[in-house]
Design brief:
This protein is α+β, with helices and mostly antiparallel strands and 634 residues long. Helices cover 21% and strands 27% of the residues.
């Protein structure tokens, strides 16, 4: 029925000029940060095709995504905030909830501080997606790559307006491995693997990102008879870190003059993503249709600054990472704060570029605040296609900005991530002008205020100094939560906090923490660490068998030299014995500082490793989202 209505509304508009209608290419990278290309400022990564594309495009400097991938993907296809379409975390590879499922519980045990909402694991079939609107207007449509918006067939891209689909499930990352054979069983055929979908194996050793490029070229070549929409959601640069060794060797010998980035595996994978994008651009040129194609380049969330070092728990993958990258995080988003999975700028600010010859200002930049909710209304505005009446839009068109005809008038833009993270129960932020207010849903809740024009790194919280601005922006957040029907976290009325401290004894001054790669001594309530091995290899280890993630690790530390720090969690589950979950952070030079690091993964924490530069530790505290925590005062 929804296809029939779309066809009726669009046919009269386009039937006389259908063959002249421009094509649309949406190229979405996975986990590529704002600083992860040459045109956006990287001095280490090499992205010649992306950089060259910028000379024909408008580049946005204030473009946002969600902190994680599935929510962004849902917003791209619906034009809605995540609080409205309901996909609020990266859960699209999990079984869809049944009809009538309650996404916000009414009760919780006494040891749980908050009533926490649950994300939808699927995109509602009733949504009128961008693909369906374009298909109703006569476009041939294709989805190639990661989907992550529904595990089972009723929620696959074929059911959301795509004529051609190249995908696999479950799909938080690439299909099993980056290299063929991928282990995917085509739908309707018997097989012994767990993954299903329409992806088929290529020649042994084929790289999945190269295969995506080949499938895109095939689709473009076969769409000569009329306009097309190519929705390519690239598998790179998401884990499990499949990379071409010949590229990695090259980057291993290269140094970043800025000292910010330097992971050769990430650089290698970004080169492959750049080549994929370049092959699509070359095919458009080959077909003579580049000037009549709207091309959009962006990413699904901020750069990944934490790392699961293994592929499916295989020790060899961990060894491969250690060989090439050591203890480095996948990328660094400096000067932005933090990265993927957080509501700070490093987790949400992304590259975004648009090109359309003669229509969009080439080699230009815009500081308009835009996001994935705006892509759908902007595309159909540029094409002259009416909005489907059945679809609710939170996004607005910025076609006038692209054409150089005016500015985007926007009072506020919102970002909503209600799930456990650095502040335990998630949060929401509003960007209004230069100011950004973050509201954390903790018990009690807190707020942070930043002036991003003056403080891009979000280092100076202005909330206490400017209460009137906080109050003004809190009103906007309240309106957003009400308007979208957000199932945001609420304090649990039955919660009874339990404090637990681990006493330090004379016989065990380290309180069961084990020194590795360093010498640790305790004096006057302060633990002092001094490395005895390779740089970056010193850590304190502790068994956390009785605690489960997600959790927050809080440290009070001081280091004269400063340097990189990292939290590793080794769950040691029977099904996945060699997985390491890793979260990177930076220890600043100078006085005492309190650092909060989130361990987002669920399940037993197993062994916790706290990597630190030479320095002093006042206390370590582990606070699970659910259950009793512990604090070690040295």
């Amino acid at each position: 029925m929804k296809f029939f209505l779309l066809l009726l509304s669009s046919f009269a508009l386009l039937h006389s000029s259908l063959w002249a209608a421009p094509n649309v290419v949406l190229f979405l990278t996975d986990d590529m940060g704002w600083m992860d290309s040459g045109v956006y400022g990287s001095k280490y990564y090499e992205t010649p095709n992306i950089d060259k594309f910028a000379t024909r495009a408008m580049r946005f400097t204030n473009a946002y995504a969600q902190p994680l991938c599935s929510p962004t993907r849902g917003s791209l296809l619906t034009g809605q905030y995540t609080a409205r379409h309901g996909i609020t975390t990266a859960s699209g590879h999990q079984p869809p909830q049944p009809t009538g499922h309650v996404f916000l519980p009414e009760t919780a045990p006494a040891n749980v501080p908050m009533l926490l909402p649950e994300s939808k694991n699927y995109l509602e079939p009733a949504q009128i997606t961008l693909a369906e609107t374009l298909k109703g207007a006569g476009y041939r449509t294709a989805h190639i790559g990661k989907w992550h918006l529904g595990l089972t067939q009723p929620y696959w891209p074929e059911q959301q307006g795509f004529d051609v689909a190249f995908h696999c499930h479950p799909d938080p990352g690439p299909p099993g491995e980056y290299f063929s054979p991928y282990g995917v069983v085509p739908e309707g055929k018997p097989g012994g693997k767990t993954k299903v979908g329409t992806i088929t194996d290529g020649p042994p050793g084929e790289y999945i990102v190269d295969r995506q490029a080949a499938e895109a070229v095939k689709f473009i070549s076969s769409s000569k008879g009329g306009p097309f929409f190519l929705n390519l959601w690239c598998y790179g640069v998401h884990g499990p870190w499949g990379h071409k060794v010949e590229y990695t060797k090259y980057f291993a010998a290269k140094k970043d003059p800025s000292g910010r980035q330097g992971n050769p595996i990430m650089a290698s994978m970004l080169r492959s993503v750049d080549e994929c994008f370049g092959r699509i651009l070359a095919e458009l040129d080959e077909q003579g249709i580049a000037d009549n194609t709207i091309i959009i380049f962006t990413s699904d969330n901020g750069g990944n600054t934490h790392s699961n070092l293994t592929t499916d728990g295989k020790k060899s993958a961990n060894e491969d990472w250690q060989k090439w990258a050591g203890n480095q995080p996948p990328t660094m988003n400096t000067p932005l704060r933090d990265g993927k999975g957080t509501l700070y700028e490093g987790g949400t600010r992304v590259p975004m570029m648009w090109a359309w010859a003669g229509k969009i200002q080439a080699a230009s930049t815009s500081d308009a605040v835009v996001g994935p909710i705006d892509v759908y209304p902007t595309v159909i505005d540029l094409l002259g296609i009416a909005k489907p009446e059945q679809q609710i839009f939170d996004g607005v068109s910025y076609a006038k900005v692209l054409r150089g005809e005016g500015e985007l008038k926007r009072e506020a833009y919102f970002n909503y991530h209600p799930h456990a993270g650095a502040h335990r129960a998630g949060g929401v932020w509003v960007r209004s002008g230069d100011f950004k207010l973050l509201r954390w849903f903790g018990n009690p809740g807190t707020s942070e205020l930043y002036n991003l024009r003056e403080d891009l790194s979000e280092a100076h919280d202005l909330a206490d100094a400017t209460p009137e601005k906080v109050k003004e922006l809190e009103v906007l957040i309240d309106g957003f939560l009400k308007d979208t029907g957000a199932t945001y976290p609420r304090p649990n009325p039955a919660y009874k906090p339990v404090a637990a401290k681990v006493p330090v004894s004379n016989t065990d001054p380290l309180a069961a923490w084990k020194e590795r790669g360093c010498k640790a001594t305790v004096s006057g309530g302060i633990l002092t660490m001094k490395s005895t091995g390779k740089p970056g290899g010193a850590f304190l280890g502790h068994g956390m068998a009785k605690m489960n993630g997600p959790a927050v690790v809080t440290l009070r530390v001081r280091s004269e030299a400063g340097g990189a720090g990292k939290i590793d969690s080794l769950p040691h589950t029977a099904a996945d014995p060699d997985v390491i979950h890793s979260s990177a952070f930076e220890v600043k030079t100078g006085d005492w500082q309190e650092v909060k690091i989130e361990v987002r993964e669920k399940g037993a924490l197993g062994t916790l490793r706290v990597y630190l530069p030479d320095g002093e530790v006042d206390f370590i505290e582990v606070s699970p989202v659910n259950g009793k925590g512990q604090r070690w005062d040295f």
